[in-house]
């Protein structure tokens, strides 16, 4: 949920865009991080850990802990707490270490 | 490859003030900030600051940041780069930088590292479950992005950060189920604690968290009472319903760059962990590398700012800037720091610094 009223702060949101989370459209605003937009949409489970496949979500929100890594536009291990949304971006739950095939295919 | 005069790493209060001071003295300054905005921790602080008038006590943290940034942006001899994360520091003095997705190598004559601190983790079952957050993350979500982090939060830690973030959560319309602290007393200022108590939130001292409950998101927490030896008392467990657990159990200095530079490091619990050894002039054991702010010891924005001014002053004066007034200004800043650290609130930091300077 997004805060619309706050006793002290005013939120100047950017232009509305759409990102796709595991195929589903999610409303987002330019300037927001992927993790913030997913949170606002009620998505908290962002990846599964590599060893024990435990659910992981946002923890530090400043790019220091790697708990929020997802597959963004086909690219794995992207820290979604410091990655800004872009219209049409695809975001997928990352399972384990992520498939590095995208890189091999490119080069 | 670029050559620079003074490079300041980190755009929190310490880095902003270091850059300001060196620039006021006439030095060419480059400020590198990894985030896309300047201000560091200050941008998340919506409350009126405590501290001294000279460092803008009574002003909201976020407004202090805006003030400092405005002055800096007007200086022709300051270059500000955001989205510029310093990745490493090499033996020959090179800083490697991810500058807006471009790899850059910068050689500064003098460098001030003001990289701040990161949150400490706490051991308990399921502490990796979605819904367990550092207090800073919750602040970022609600105060920077305007996203409600949860409906009902359990706060772990009753120091100033735990208390202030709890209050901010309530302002954002989030319920705070309780605030726990393992210690026998509330660590933060009583003015903050009183505000929260008046709102009906219990502050449970000598309590800790044992387990996060849930499957793929937190739905509750098992808490437990502790005895005088900080051990869990069997049979005192209770389950609290909440959809987020917020950890405010301290910060540790984000000192990677000092390690990489080979600075002498000291482990000082009172300062939050490993910090670089340094002189009164804020210079580390490696010539030309200065430290300022939380990364040199967890303290407050007010002292981070004065340390920043001092580091900036000494870095610039080492390059020959500043003229005759430098010594007077230096003494004035050192006095300000001592004043900030006098009194009971400064006890811990004084003990830490005594260890730091003991050789
Ligand atoms: C909830 C809360 C309430 C607080 N209330 C008060 C108060 O009322 N009064 C008070 O005086 N203090 C208060 N503080 C403390 C104060 O915010 C901090 O002490 C202060 O921000 C420390 O400043 P700093 O510049 O050292 O670090 P920070 O503010 O953490 O800034 C560090 C900056 O460095 C950047 N950085 C880190 N690594 C790199 C890198 N490798 N490359 C480039 N950039 C990098 C970071 O992105 C960040 O912007 C509060 C803190 C919190 C969390
Ligand atoms: S939440 Fe820690 S890196 Fe993103």
From TrEMBL, chain A:
<dbReference type="GO" id="GO:0050622">
    <property type="term" value="F:glycine dehydrogenase (cyanide-forming) activity"/>
</dbReference>
<feature type="domain" description="2Fe-2S ferredoxin-type">
    <location>
        <begin position="15"/>
        <end position="97"/>
    </location>
</feature>
<dbReference type="GO" id="GO:0051537">
    <property type="term" value="F:2 iron, 2 sulfur cluster binding"/>
</dbReference>
<dbReference type="Pfam" id="PF13510">
    <property type="entry name" value="Fer2_4"/>
</dbReference>
<protein>
    <submittedName>
        <fullName>Hydrogen cyanide synthase subunit HcnA</fullName>
        <ecNumber>1.4.99.5</ecNumber>
    </submittedName>
</protein>
<dbReference type="InterPro" id="IPR001041">
    <property type="entry name" value="2Fe-2S_ferredoxin-type"/>
</dbReference>
<dbReference type="InterPro" id="IPR042204">
    <property type="entry name" value="2Fe-2S-bd_N"/>
</dbReference>
<dbReference type="InterPro" id="IPR036010">
    <property type="entry name" value="2Fe-2S_ferredoxin-like_sf"/>
</dbReference>
<dbReference type="InterPro" id="IPR006058">
    <property type="entry name" value="2Fe2S_fd_BS"/>
</dbReference>
<keyword id="KW-0560">Oxidoreductase</keyword>
């Amino acid at each position: 949920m997004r805060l619309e009223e706050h006793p002290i702060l005013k939120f100047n949101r950017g232009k509305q865009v759409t990102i796709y989370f595991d195929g589903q459209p999610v409303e987002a605003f330019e300037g927001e991080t992927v993790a913030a937009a997913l949170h606002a949409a009620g998505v908290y489970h962002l990846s599964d850990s590599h060893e024990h496949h435990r659910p992981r979500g946002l923890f530090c929100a400043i790019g220091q802990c790697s708990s929020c890594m997802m597959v963004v536009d086909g690219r794995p291990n992207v820290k979604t707490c410091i990655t800004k949304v872009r219209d049409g971006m695809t975001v997928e739950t990352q399972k384990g270490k992520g498939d590095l095939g995208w890189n091999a295919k490119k080069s | 490859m670029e050559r620079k005069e003074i490079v300041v790493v980190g755009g929190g209060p310490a880095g902003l003030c270091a850059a300001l001071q060196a620039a006021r003295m006439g030095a060419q300054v480059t400020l590198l900030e990894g985030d896309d905005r300047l201000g560091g921790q200050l941008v998340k602080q919506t409350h009126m600051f405590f501290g001294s008038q000279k460092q803008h006590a009574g002003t909201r943290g976020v407004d202090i940041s805006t003030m400092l940034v405005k002055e800096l942006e007007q200086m022709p001899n300051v270059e500000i780069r955001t989205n510029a994360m310093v990745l490493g520091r090499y033996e020959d003095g090179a800083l490697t930088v991810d500058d807006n997705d471009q790899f850059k190598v910068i050689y500064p004559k003098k460098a001030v590292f003001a990289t701040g601190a990161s949150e400490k983790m706490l051991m308990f079952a399921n502490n990796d479950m979605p819904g367990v957050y550092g207090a800073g993350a919750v602040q970022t979500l609600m105060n920077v992005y305007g996203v409600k982090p949860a409906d009902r939060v359990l706060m772990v830690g009753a120091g100033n950060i735990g208390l202030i973030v709890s209050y901010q959560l309530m302002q954002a319309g989030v319920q705070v189920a309780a605030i726990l602290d393992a210690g026998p007393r509330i660590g933060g200022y009583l003015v903050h604690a009183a505000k929260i108590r008046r709102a009906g939130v219990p502050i449970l001292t000598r309590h800790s968290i044992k387990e996060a409950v849930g499957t793929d998101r937190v739905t509750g927490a098992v808490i437990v009472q502790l005895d005088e030896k900080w051990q869990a008392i069997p049979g005192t467990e209770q389950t609290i319903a909440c959809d987020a657990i917020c950890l405010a159990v301290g910060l540790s200095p984000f000192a990677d760059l000092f390690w990489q530079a080979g600075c002498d490091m000291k482990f000082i619990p009172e300062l939050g962990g490993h910090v670089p050894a340094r002189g009164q002039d804020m210079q580390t054991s490696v010539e030309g590398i200065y430290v300022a702010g939380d990364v040199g010891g967890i303290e407050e924005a007010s002292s981070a700012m004065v340390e920043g001014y001092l580091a900036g002053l000494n870095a610039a004066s080492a390059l020959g800037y500043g003229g005759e007034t430098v010594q007077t200004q230096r003494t004035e800043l050192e006095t300000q720091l001592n004043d900030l650290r006098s009194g009971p609130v400064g006890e811990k930091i004084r003990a830490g610094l005594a260890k730091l300077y003991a050789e």
